[in-house]
Design a protein that fits this description.
Length: 445
């Protein structure tokens, strides 16, 4: 029968589902509880059957023996009904909650047992499985009182059945030891029950925590991927489209002036830039690295970038000269470092072309011991880094993201980014990336 306060029944039919996590699937306390409950029910049925069989075979009760047998059948039915309702409710097969009727069911079972005990001492041994039920379903103090009364009833029944003027010592000690054993075992069962309940709650909490952690990691992954996409789009596609727009305008101006040769050259540069942007977009979708780094080394990619920047500036009517310099022996860098350095150069030279009004830009790549550095210098109009930072980040057209994007890239590789500028004094962007004390590797050229 389902338990009332202070204990609640374990869902026997759902024990496997209650411990789905690794390490809890075969909880020892759960297996012991299942064995104890099964033993209790089987033991009650066996003792009741033996008592009825002895009563009928002995014929001591005369015609009343059939009355006692009928009452025993009623007791078996009541007991079976309680266990079935408990199991169905615990397994979720029914919405009917029988816990509130637990004491009433126990009282009816105990009363039927007392009637049978009054008719035949053969039913005395049913007291021992009933002791467990009293301990499980009733508060401990009340259970101890009812067990004491039931033990006294068993002793009295054995004494009357013996016909002796004084009860035999074994008839007294047997029920007392049996009651003590039942109490100790019942208390151990309660301890195991509480342990199983704690394990179930811990498993539920672990499942909830794991689900929350998975959701949190998913959200963090989404945010990180959005940041990555924003950086890649800004450093590749957005800059390419900006160059295409500016060169197309310059080509239109050349056509309006009747300079078809210059216009054709600028449109060819537009086509080249668009092709490069298309390659970047395709590799971006596939999650690959920059096409420039797939085809050539970082050193060659930076040289080509400087040449392309100078050509693009010329197509837009700017007299910018851009050169590449290298200090030290080039090393075969890990791919994340190569991509970050190339993106840093692209973003910085795009700013030089769009804003600096410079005559010269110099890109310097240096391999210095356990770090690699990249400096981009221009002799343009410069700016106040402190005063303009907020303005750059607040632009509504999507521009002004380059420095923040570059800072995020460099920080992710445990490097440093320094920006030095002043009005009228040009600008220097300095990137420092550690090599993690790894051997340099092979020469790139």
């Amino acid at each position: 029968m389902p338990a009332t306060e202070p204990l609640r029944p374990l869902p026997e039919a759902g024990l496997d589902k209650a411990y789905p996590l690794s390490g809890l699937d075969a909880a020892p306390s759960v297996a012991i509880l299942r064995g104890l409950r099964l033993t209790l029910h089987v033991g009650f049925a066996a003792l009741l059957g033996v008592a009825v069989l002895r009563l009928l075979l002995s014929g001591a009760g005369g015609p009343l023996q059939y009355v006692w047998a009928g009452i025993a059948l009623v007791l078996a039915g009541v007991y079976l009904m309680g266990t079935i309702l408990e199991k169905r409710f615990a397994s979720g097969s029914t919405a009917f909650d029988p816990r509130r009727y637990g004491p009433l069911w126990l009282g009816l079972v105990t009363a039927l047992w007392a009637i049978l005990l009054a008719g035949s001492s053969d039913f005395a041994w049913l007291a021992f499985p009933l002791f467990f039920l009293h301990l499980h379903l009733l508060p401990r103090r009340i259970a101890m009182l009812t067990i004491a009364l039931m033990t006294a009833a068993v002793i009295a029944s054995q004494w009357l059945a013996s016909g002796l003027p004084v009860p035999h010592l074994a008839a007294v000690l047997g029920p007392l030891f049996g009651a003590a054993f039942s109490v100790v075992t019942g208390l151990a069962y309660q301890a195991l029950y509480r342990e199983a309940e704690n394990q179930r709650r811990a498993a539920d909490e672990l499942r909830r925590t794991r689900a929350e952690l998975a959701a949190s990691q998913h959200d963090a992954g989404v945010l990180a991927e959005r940041e990555r996409l924003a950086r890649e789009i800004h450093d590749t596609l957005a800059q390419g489209f900006s160059s295409i727009v500016l060169m197309a305008r310059a080509a239109e101006k050349s056509l309006a002036d009747g300079d078809t040769a210059t216009a054709a050259a600028r449109f060819a540069l537009v086509e080249q830039t668009a092709s490069e942007n298309l390659a970047e977009a395709r590799n971006f979708v596939r999650g690959l690295t920059s096409p420039q780094l797939q085809e050539t080394s970082l050193v060659e990619s930076l040289r080509r970038l400087c040449a392309t920047t100078e050509t693009s500036a010329a197509a837009r009517g700017l007299g910018l000269r851009c050169r590449f310099e290298m200090d030290g022996d080039p090393l075969d860098l890990p791919q994340p470092l190569k991509v970050t350095l190339l993106r840093a150069a692209q973003a910085s030279l795009a700013n030089v072309t769009d804003h600096a009004k410079a005559a010269t830009a110099v890109v310097t790549l240096a391999f210095l011991g356990n770090e690699v550095t990249l400096d981009i210098y221009d002799d343009g109009i410069g700016f106040d880094p402190t005063g303009s930072a907020a303005h750059r980040n607040d632009r509504t057209d999507g521009s002004g993201y380059g420095i923040r994007s570059l800072q995020e890239r460099v920080t992710a590789l445990k490097g440093t980014l320094e920006l030095e500028s002043a009005p009228g004094e040009g600008t220097v962007v300095a990137v420092r990336l550690p090599l993690n004390d790894e051997p340099g590797g092979k020469n790139n050229e």
